[in-house]
Specification:
eight-stranded mixed beta sheet, 11 helices, 33% helix, 25% strand, globular
Length: 391
């Protein structure tokens, strides 16, 4: 049995405790100063302890992290970004196991121990990107727990053969399959969604749909997704990524959709981009619509921005939504530690031992300063000390 004692730490800024860890799981949370298990003992020095962060929307296959700077090019539209990426990615060795490993190492350095990553599946790369990402996860001995979404970045129906690739990915272990703007990219929202839900039903996987379309066009597609989630019994397995339209609608229309999303068991992920409309997060919380935070791409051919720090994303969410009180600021941090089917948000016996120690008074203090991660434990193993990766 591999054991670890994190002594004198303050979960969520509370009273000091000792976290007892064995075989990758928190086994006990006891008042500090008692006897610990045989094994390594770390003096937590009264540091703030948070659960490992959950990056609920990433693209770890796309990044040029670790390579020389790549200047932004191409057109700024969604279609323009897709075309630019398709034209340039091979030049930068995208996708590759080395590139994905570099990104996952940055995740760990910033305290992210779980991710849902979208991985491009298209006629150019087939399923090679998924193979690269799995190899990267294995290289790090699965310190980052991972869900893989087979993602049709270049469209679904408009690219014959992509549906077959998504079905193959689902049959070979992808956690979910993705979709992309069924109306504005494929120009056939009913057809795209029917095809995706048919695979999800047949293969027992989830669906995670990038939806950038705004206003009533976006709302119409939410309604189609809600109808299919209900009819297929896929509650808890369908997610909308981005979903900018929800913040753009009238309050009455928002209330109607949020209630239906909650009843259908559909979740939401956001990267809280600065120019987007704020989400009705209070109503979503009350309706039981799970919200996850993610980085989206990090230094890729879509954008030069990003460093993998979920605390910075949570700070962006807080600022976008005008959060000010301690309770609200802590809520933003909690969003960064949990998502659907993840036991994060608490540091309790039985949970996977993912722990981040930060020199901060409490969660709101950590949020607004985003200080370095002093120690990161992933699956019971110390992977970061003094802000740097171990090994």
């Amino acid at each position: 049995m591999t054991s670890l004692l994190l002594a004198n730490v303050r979960p969520w800024g509370g009273d000091p405790v000792d976290l007892h860890i064995a075989d990758g799981v928190i086994t006990a949370v006891l008042p500090t100063g008692g006897d610990g298990p045989a094994g390594e003992r770390v003096d937590g020095r009264g540091l703030l302890a948070l659960p490992g962060f959950v990056n609920a929307h990433a693209h770890v296959d796309k990044s040029w992290w670790g390579q020389p700077w790549v200047s932004y090019g191409g057109e700024p539209t969604t279609q323009g970004r897709i075309a630019h990426e398709r034209a340039e990615r091979a030049k930068y060795g995208i996708p590759s196991a080395a590139g994905a490993t570099a990104v996952l190492r940055e995740f760990l350095r910033h305290g992210t121990t779980t991710t849902r990553t979208h991985v491009d599946v298209d006629l150019g790369v087939g399923l090679r990107g998924i193979e690269c990402v799995r190899e990267a996860a294995a290289t790090l001995d699965h310190a980052v727990a991972m869900e893989i979404v087979a993602f049709p970045q270049d469209g679904v129906l408009r690219r014959p053969g992509v549906i077959d690739l998504l079905d193959q990915a689902a049959s070979e272990g992808a956690t979910s399959i993705g979709g992309l703007d069924p109306a504005s990219i494929d120009r056939d929202p009913v057809g795209q969604l029917d095809a995706l839900f048919a695979i999800a039903e047949r293969r027992g996987v989830g669906i995670d749909i990038h939806l950038h379309d705004g206003g009533e066009l976006g709302a119409f597609q939410y309604e189609l997704i809600i109808e299919r989630t209900r009819s297929t019994g896929l509650a808890g397995k369908v997610n909308v990524s981005h979903g900018f339209a929800l913040g753009e609608l009238s309050p009455a229309r928002q209330d109607q959709l949020v209630e239906q999303l909650g009843e259908a068991g559909i979740s939401w992920t956001t990267v809280a981009p600065v120019r987007s409309a704020p989400l009705p997060w209070r109503a979503m919380q009350e309706a039981g619509v799970a919200i996850g935070l993610g980085t989206d791409g990090i230094r890729d051919l879509w954008s030069p921005y990003g460093d993998g720090d979920l605390l910075r994303v949570a700070l962006g969410f807080a600022r976008l939504h005008g959060l000010r009180t301690d309770e609200e600021l802590e809520y933003a941090v909690r969003l960064a530690t949990r998502f659907v089917d993840h036991d994060g948000g608490t540091l309790a016996p039985g949970a996977r031992a993912d722990v981040v120690l930060i020199d901060a008074q409490h969660a709101p203090d950590a949020l607004v300063r985003a200080p370095r991660r002093e120690l990161v434990v992933a699956g019971g193993r110390i992977v970061v000390r003094d802000g740097e990766l171990v090994g």
